[in-house]
Design a protein that fits this description.
54 residues, four-stranded antiparallel β-sheet, globular, alpha+beta
Length: 54
Amino acid sequence: MKVLLCQDGSCVPPKCPVVDVQEDKVIIGENKNICVLTREQFDILKEKIKNNEI
């Protein structure tokens, strides 16, 4: 599943960051500016966001 993190017209030039959730990893970022997390690391990140820790 891929999710774009921008609204229409908010990225000029269009370089919308993406969260690409794959079976074994999650890729976050745009073009060559990316972060690759394992699914376990991504799950920890999600919980910290949900719990307002970050």
